[in-house]
Amino acid sequence: MAAPAGPPAEAAGTERSEEALAAALADVPELARLLETDPYLKPYAPDFQRRYKRFNQTLSSIGENEGGIDRFSRGYESFGVHRCADGEWAPGAEGVFLTGDFNDWNPFSHPYKKLDFGKWELYIPPKQNRSVLVPHGSKLKLVIRSKSGEILYRISPWAKYVTREGSNVNYDWIHWDPEYSYKFKHSKPKKPKGLRIYESHVGISSYEGKIASYKHFTCNVLPRIKDLGYNCIQLMAIMEHAYYASFGYQITSFFAASSRYGTPEELKELVDTQRMYNKENVLYIMPKSVFICYFSWEVLRFLLSNIRWWLEEYGFDGFRFDGVTSMLYHHHGIGENFSGDYHEYFGLQVDEDALIYIMLANHLVHTLYPDSITIAEDVSGMPALCSPISQGGGGFDYRLAMAIPDKWIQVRFNVNIFFFLWILYEDWNMGNIVYTLTNRRYLEKCIAYAESHDQVNKYTLAFWLMDAEMYTNMSVLTPFTPVIDRGIQLHKMIRLITHALGGEGYLNFMGNEFGHPEWLDFPRKGNNESYHYARRQFHLTDDDLLRYKFLNNFDRDMNKLEERYGWLSAPQAHVSEKHEDNKIIAFERASLLFIFNFHPSKSYTDYRVGTTFCTYKIVLDSDAAEYGGHKRLDHNTEFFSEPFEHNNCPCSLLVSKILRYFHFI
């Protein structure tokens, strides 16, 4: 007798899928919300379930073995050198010793005691007069005897200050324990609704050919940032790094603020002064940590403690995690195109150890300080990376919209070609530009930018647009040339449309707000160690006879208009027009109507634009005289919409003039 037929294979597979989905929904508290937002993620519900369970298991294990993540993330209080017992982790060492100025560099007079799990401990009692044996400012080294008998001199990975004297290649570990440490006077700021980031580098912040200081940045750059209307500073290259030209990415001491700019107390003063100015956030770029065993217990302690150290000791308000793509995948994103197929984001290619670390890091940051901000630099577009951990996501607040500057690079390349052929900009595809600016995951916030530090190592946006004419034709005493006129107008338009359409946050690299010329290049052998391009020429915008002031004014008023209307915290814009022949883009966001004319030669009169039923007045006009425009519009004019359907909008209005290379709101 034949066995009874079972359910069809397809039906059985469907039943198993439904069971797996139900189990995932039961384990991940808010997974249903994520799947409601993006139903195409349902087949991957077990992946979110596994990630969330691993996150919870790790958190529970930390609680059972370390007393919770709060205690676990305070490794800097017990490792390194302190006024209490000192600790180190050296699992492969046969012996560990402390030497330095305090013992006349005797390598073996102060041995550490070996503990379990590769830990070592040393207690040095105070002198008879109760003063410390290791005073502030003294030099130290760890002496490590390997199992083969080799003697190694090393700086502690927990060192809080290291310096390099003169032309020395090696750093000295300096015990930093001042009698009077800097005390913060101002409280941490609240998280802003719309994030406007000023990306900065302390060392290049002077117009002089040298490395600038924390003090210089505090006194000279912070007031500019406040005036420009940015509400967040993103500081680069703060952790100590041996190679200045690495832009701070080749970290040598994770807990030490770079001494090439000044002292730790001066960095604290910088952060505190920024709080005073406008309760603005200060973020730090957290360099990527590739090729790390994220689930080594002590490595995890080190990394999480490092995050907490910068939040608590220096008062930073969050982090931009650099190179997240290289952390998320075993292939590190090398040679990957990332088409957007969801299979690329799940499966064995994902480094889930790294992903769980990212979830733990975001959990720690937002638990300690709920108003902190975390940003992911991820080129892959991994779904849910910026969704809450309770949904199975990575927990970041924002991701960088990295396709946007690439798009502007692409169209700038076309600019150079068509300059020569005198058919400038006519190949710009309005639909493609709009698609790039609006193509982002629903409810995962993005930081839009036209250029960051990554782009300016070739040319700045302004230099792409105006090139060598910036050396000769930026004076207000000379007539506009076609190149300078077009370049100034397009610089404003590109930045505004990116700001208004591209995301829920906006980023600008220091100096580019006023159209900084040339490019960025750190001193290195290839340029004879020159600082000429490793500086920011702020004096250009202060010179009333130069046109840089116009771009600076526009950037300031653009930010202040966003502060007033809040388009970054508003829902995505409704784009009513992207006309290829006319080169017109029109959209509405936050009760504002944006109209851009990218046409190189055509202006329009009585141009109909779809909109809601409302009365409009001009609030920002790139053709205004204070922005280097030609002052061709009357700002007292009112524009009345009427119930006349146009471009799928129930109402529309007639705009009396839409000028070439022009926008208004």
Automatic annotation (TrEMBL):
GO cellular component, one term: cytoplasm
Glycoside hydrolase family 13 N-terminal domain mapped to chain residues: 79-159
Keyword Glycosyltransferase part of the UniProt annotation: yes
Active site positions, chain numbering: 322, 377
Domain Alpha-amylase/branching enzyme C-terminal all beta span(s) in chain numbering: 575-647
UniProt keyword annotations, A-Z: Glycosyltransferase, Transferase
GO terms for MF: 1,4-alpha-glucan branching enzyme activity; cation binding; hydrolase activity, hydrolyzing O-glycosyl compounds
UniProt record, GO biological process: glycogen biosynthetic process
Entry protein name: 1,4-alpha-glucan branching enzyme
